[in-house]
Amino acid sequence: MAHIDLDKKILDKSERFAQENRELLDAHGVFMIDLLASPGAGKTSTIKATINALRESFNIAIIEGDIASNVDAVRIKEMGIPAVQINTGGSCHLEGDMINKALKVLDLENTDLIIIENVGNLVCPTDFYLGEDVKVMILSVPEGDDKPLKYPGIFQAAKAIILNKVDTLPVFDFDMPAFEERILNLNPQAPLFKIAATKENGVDSWSAWLTEQIEAAKAKQA
To answer: Can you spell out the DSSP letters for 95-106?
Structure first.
């Protein structure tokens, strides 16, 4: 009896569209981030703080991924930033074909940076390449310093790691030295940015690193 590996078929389909996405982005000189985090970590607030830090330097667009609703996309549009909403209808991650459709809606000719807010999940999105330049992972202080032990894959896949809600450190039992050591063991190349997104504290270092990544990618394509 034939065995069909559905997971492999889904991954293969997503990979094909991801490569098309990469070619499309390269053709227009667009840098794209896949932003990963669990629900409540502060993805949207981090995106908003990033927009405020970089909107004078780059033309930014956002792709919002959620199981349902368009709440986050509406918030972004209220800032005057183009946003495309993707509702997965129950799927725990975004896939290459979903991003492909979103890219074809956006004005790539006049876009420098696209930030994908992936579905809140610390497992599934790690396995799917969407055509992005980098994956960036957000953890919030209330989630605990032990998350790298429980979900090592997402920390290893990230090109940079953001620790959000550091203004709440006095309230939570978060062991910063232990967290930093765990990150260092899993992904010594990834910089760690400590921010309080809603207050826009610490965002300068993160936005400076991101600017360097964008400029380096543009120089490589030139």
So the answer is: -HHHHHHHHTTS
